[in-house]
Fold:
Amino acid sequence: METDTYKTDIIFRVFKKEVIALFPHEVCDRQGNVTSYQHLGQHSGADYRHIIQNSKKATEQEYKNLKKEMENLGYSLNLVSRQNRKYENKLARIQSKRFSKSKR
Structure:
């Protein structure tokens, strides 16, 4: 498969004993979830804050197979350590709207 020229920001974490890749700058739904990727289940939405708070940073040894799988799909990955402030604030706004509507 042809590799994408766009560098996709990615964070690898270990969550519930499984390595998960978070796309910290790709909001995937109206609930403010970000796109994620795992061996099983593959692409899905994930609550960024929940995953970060309840997981640990994956080591290179832990994430190497998932990284290779994603690169074989054509991803060109840019490993980052956290979500930038712009997206952090965007997610906070989306999620606060979600919770205020659910209280009605």
About this structure: The chain has one domain: 7-102.
